[in-house]
Amino acid sequence: MRIGLLGGSFNPAHGGHRRITLFAIEALHLDEVWWMVSPGNPLKPSKGMASLSARFRSAMAQARRAPIRVTAIESEFGTPYTVETLAAIRRRYPQHEFVWLMGSDNLAQFHRWRDWRGIARAMPIAVIARPGYESAAVASPAMAWLRKFRVPLAGFFTRGKWSAPTLVTLRFDPDPRSATAIRRSDPDWALRLENLPPRDQVTRHLVIPAQDTPA
Predict the structure, then answer these.
(1) CA-based Rg of the chain, rounded to a whole angstrom?
(2) Where is the Cytidyltransferase-like domain (predicted)?
(3) Closest Cα to residue 86, out of 15, 6, 31?
(4) Measured distance CA(155)–CA(60) in Å, rounded
(5) Which of 117, 51, 114 is nearest to 84 (CA)?
(6) CA neighbor of 79 nearest in space, from 36, 127, 142
(7) Order of strands, edge to edge, in the sheet holding 167-170?
(8) Mean predicted confidence (pLDDT) in 160-183
(9) In 3D, which of 74, 75, 1, 77 has the Cα closest to residue 33?
(10) Residues 158-187: what's their mean pLDDT?
(11) Which residues sit opposite 71 in a β-bridge?
(12) End-to-end distance of the chain based on CA atoms, in angstroms?
């Protein structure tokens, strides 16, 4: 199977996440996408971050009836950095091919990620354009290195076995929805989702992190 990996806080997940995922599935001819709900992002403040269970449940609600599986595999692996998580996923699921999906807002700061070149060498990267971040993404140190590995979209999904480093850019009508706006309009959203631990849709294990309390 060819699987896209979309990591994020999903604090909370919303229709914008679903829309860009379905677009990526169609554009890249993917079998499915795994939403990797992060236990924590070292580049984001912990204040205002809902519990992993609440964020996971919000992602499950948005992923219904779509080729999307929600996973907290990063918490299960105990890998604090994306480069370590991706290496562990490739070891556990060698039968699949993976592509890392991220927005242009993440590309703009990609050079701050731990061993970001290692991420690029681990699997192809598909960058989804986000309004307001294009200039920063194009001018970023990571893009200066990745530019020589860019391929057109048509050439990406018609290749045989995927190789890395490879960068492909996806463009579609921008979606104005954001988790920040949702939190502002509905600050108690997570309280409605604090329930029994959900079950991971990839590993089938219960999502019970060591410390699952709101910041």
Answers:
(1) 16
(2) 5-184
(3) 6
(4) 32
(5) 114
(6) 36
(7) 68-71, 32-37, 2-8, 97-103, 125-128, 167-170
(8) 82
(9) 1
(10) 81
(11) 36
(12) 37
d(CA 118, CA 39): 21
The residues, any chain, with a CB within 8 Å of residue 106's CB and separated by 6 or more, are none
Tokens of 189: 């959203």
Amino acid letter for position 129? A
- Both tokens of 48, joined, read 């205002």
3-state SS class at 4: strand
What distance in Å separates the CA atoms of residue 4 and residue 33, rounded to the nearest whole number?
Answer: 4
Residue 65: count of CB within 10 angstroms of its CB: 5
Other C-beta atoms closer than 10 Å to the C-beta of 173 total 8
Please compute the mean of the pLDDT values over residues 87-101 and round it to a whole number: 97
Q: Of the given ranges (15-29, 65-79, 128-142), which has the lowest mean pLDDT?
A: 128-142
8-state DSSP, 198: P
Cα separation, 99 vs 109, in Å, equals 19
| Residue 200 reports pLDDT greater than 70 | yes
d(CA 122, CA 103): 18
The answer, yes or no, to whether residue 136 has pLDDT greater than 90, is no
Q: Tokens 């677009």 label which residue? A: 23
Helix (H, G, I), strand (E, B) or coil at 98: strand
